[in-house]
Amino acid sequence: MAIMPPLTTTDQQPSGTTARKAPPAWAVMLAVCAGQFLVVLDVSVVNVAMPSMRASLGLSELGLQWVVNAYVITFAGFLMLGGRAADLFGRKRVFLIGLGLFTAASLGGGLAQEPWQLIAARTVQGVGAAVLAPATLTILTTSFPQGPARTRAVATWTAVGAGGGAAGGLVGGLLTQFLSWRWVLLINVPIGALVLVGAALCLSESRQDGRRRLDIPGALLVTGGLALVAYGIVQTGERGWTAAGALLPLLAGLVVLGAFVAVEARSAAPLMPLGVFRPRSVWATTSAMVVVGAGMFSMWYFLSLYTQNVLGYTALQAGLSFLPHSLSIVIGSKAAPRLMALPRLGAKTVAVAGVLLAAIGMAWQSTMDAHGTYLGTILGPGVTMALGAGLSATPIAAICTSGAAAGDAGLVSGLINTSRQMGGALGLSVLSTVAAGVMGSGRVALADGYALAFRVGAVVLLAGVLLMLFSLPGREKDEAPHAA
């Protein structure tokens, strides 16, 4: 990791904020990256533990998917609220509240005795993660001056987050194999407690001055709308696209999301001020994030199922098989800022190249079959997908935050994550439904379903490449801050 300069308060806090003396750079990086690692880890850590969860609690196929989506949907739905809360009530305070809620919910999930208890705990975990995650990025963007120092800090934050997602398979495999599936959640309790103490001692408080109002109805509407749409998509796989049980939740979700937009347009203190999308850098990157998230998010989910259900790997073997993926995604995240700084590249070129590389990896992975091998079927495509994911994340985030007003730093940070998770939740629902449509009993049928999911995911990523080519601002606008 590049050595970070000492933090000072000069020109590093948005206008209208209050702050104490800033702590050392290493302390800020350690605290926020630890929080981000936990948040992202829990998106993927349950994947390799799902067969054990299903056997222990008697989860159905639908229930198994909601162990993942309950976390992701509440995470996506409350991220904007978390970002605004960090700006208004203090980044340190919100960081501690979110981490405390996340840790308590992890304990509840690890002790669950019924499927509904596990899904409920994952839902609360998602809320805690949504409060915590935007505070981590906002603390960085308001602590480091714009330029190389901030780019390195964001790249490190992105690499840690990406590594958390990639390491989830290994961590989950180790804990499931040698302890129990319950420890994929219980492990957060001691780690969360340590980070809570460290953050309370090391971080200094900062916030935006002004009226402290939060748009709770807006957060409930967007979360409920996403949940209904995702549920409706899942029901199409079981009942068909014309069944009332699928169409009604889909239509209801769209109506609720429409109500969310209407409420935000009229609210005196909206959760998502529509004006924040005026800069091209913001609306283009958030749109791209939805599409890219829909294609990339389910990679770990389907690889975990393929290795265990088709190739017969144990939970530990599945986790170990993802180690090269973890390394690749971190390498991509750390290489991105250096490539962005090259005279002939810039953020847009690196972002597009990363997503295109991930699409190639997805298409390659879709050639899997029931007789696949690690070297011939998993290693090459997985490394390609992960490298592309790592390369694309930092430049997209850099373009988005460079166009935001200083006072909206937390909101835009939340929007970046919301877009990715929103796309991921809906993408997982769609791709799972597509895979289920061709899957039957037996290893061959399962492999065919997983392969189709990767094939459709590659098409989604190619659509993301086209969207980015025509919508993202060019290099001359990449680093131009939006005037408040």
UniProtKB/TrEMBL annotation:
Signal peptide: none annotated. It is a multi-pass membrane protein. This is MFS transporter. CDD domains: MFS_MMR_MDR_like. PROSITE patterns: MFS (PS50850), SUGAR_TRANSPORT_1 (PS00216). PANTHER family: BLR6921 PROTEIN, MAJOR FACILITATOR SUPERFAMILY MULTIDRUG TRANSPORTER MFSC. The lineage of its organism: Bacteria, Bacillati, Actinomycetota, Actinomycetes, Kitasatosporales. Residues 28-476 form the Major facilitator superfamily (MFS) profile domain. It comes from Streptomyces ochraceiscleroticus. Gene3D superfamilies: MFS general substrate transporter like domains, Multidrug resistance protein D.
